[in-house]
UniProtKB/TrEMBL annotation:
Gene3D superfamilies: Cytochrome c-like domain (1.10.760.10). This is Cytochrome c. The lineage of its organism: Bacteria, Pseudomonadati, Pseudomonadota, Alphaproteobacteria, Sphingomonadales. Keywords: Electron transport, Heme, Iron, Metal-binding, Transport. It comes from the Bacteria. It holds the Pfam family Cytochrom_C.
Amino acid sequence: MQIYMMATLSLVGSVVILGLGVPVASEASQQKGQAQFIRCAACHSTRAADRPSTGPHLEGIVGRKAGAVTNFTYSERLRKGDFIWDEARIDAFLAAPQSTDPGMCLTFRGLAKAEDRAALLAYLKAPAS
Ligand code: HEC
């Protein structure tokens, strides 16, 4: 019985340790993503409830239809854009905004490092509240 209890306790212990490890790791990449978001924050919010800015809010942007924010006046290209902002599409935009989506986010010049783009994507998926 005692052995069984000890085994159970150590199992619970490992689960707790593993469980703690996961949020710490994603928190670190989320923080990197949050730092990258400085390039977007002048024009975008990550919350739908915030008042409209220069650009549309980006809450739920990963998997969202292009031009879907109703209280934002888009360019004709995005308003009629019949596509979804999935991860691959956002990554391509982040790498080379002027060649994939010219004129969309004018002052943003692109992120060359795949690592920075991945961190920013992770942050866009789950912005810190
Ligand atoms: C100088 C202002 C500005 C900056 C900086 C900026 N954006 Fe934008 N963004 C806009 C505007 C304005 C639009 C709408 C463009 C249109 O209607 O064609 C837009 C549109 C978008 C869209 C399409 C949204 C939709 O609903 O279809 C995405 C995605 C986006 N921006 C992501 C970003 C990200 C990520 C960054 C930072 C890396 C960024 N933008 C930086 C101004 C900006």
